[in-house]
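In this section we walk through a basic example: taking a raw amino acid sequence and producing a predicted 3D structure, encoded as discrete structure tokens. The instruction is simple. Fold the sequence below.
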Amino acid sequence: MTKVLLLGLGRWGVNHLRNLNSMPVELYAAETEERRLEPARKAGLPGSRLTTRPKDLLAAINCVVVATPAPTHYALCREYLEAGKDVFVEKPITLVSEEARQLTESAAKEGRILQVGHIFRYDPASQWLRQAIQQGQFGQVQILRSNFSGFKRPRNDSGVMFADAIHFVDLFNFLTGQPPARVLAATQDFLGRGMEDASLISLQYENDGGVTWATVETNYFLPGKFREVTVVGSELSAICDYNVAQYKIRTVANRHVKEGAGFKAVEGAMHQVESPPEEPLLAELRAFIGSVETRRPPVADGWSGYHSVRVLEAAMESARTGRTVELTPE
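The resulting token sequence is shown next.
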């Protein structure tokens, strides 16, 4: 049985705890203070598997799940990779792309699994969209538009781009199969915390058919909770609402058709696409354990983490300078 050490039982760590505790693994948990281990005790983990000294458990475990604050990710991942353990790390993989590169190269060198918590890759709706794009159902993908916003408490370890925008930046990389060529962004610090709490990122993806224009909107202020992605193609468009459990995607076969010297807008049929009602966090943790046991590379590998951080670094530079930032191919 795979032995997993969960590092961190904070707001998102407890969700990892709930899902890992439902899986056929031997689960251990670590926190910085005894009192922070209480969620694991309530979940039924025996005291022998709880610790504030995770290094003491190195010999007992196969892999770790890092659900700690973002600034700690690099040091923890490096430590456990070098100790010969497979690692799942919540997004962002790091706050600096060069550190993400180092971790990814280290994992390859050590023959370890490194998976990043880009959870939307594991949503059945995302997988349907990617497959439909690859099959040409959308025709030429012209626009990708997303909104990851809602009124909530800001994170303290990073701005809204690394907290939220990174989700759909990575998703767009996943859907297009590549990182963008150009990045333009604007940010605002309405709360005066010294880090952005609202951002608008524009991405340009180059492909054989031309350019796909993508936008990612994030903030902590918009009333409600928005997790929406729109894919607009020359033959088909789709709206995906990730807040919905099962029927997330609605497609519309709208097209522009040449008519004389101009174009006419032809409205097509609308269809609802059913997605399996699966919790994406559970799906990605299952995939991680599967990779640990089979040595199969994960869908959200270290390079996916690296490219998403690299895009956000470009976005931060663009917001600071007011200029479009070019990303050289790698």
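Looking at the output, two observations stand out. The domain at 121-278+310-326 is CATH 3.30.360.10 (Dihydrodipicolinate Reductase; domain 2). The two ends are 38 Å apart (CA to CA). In the next section we compare this with other chains.
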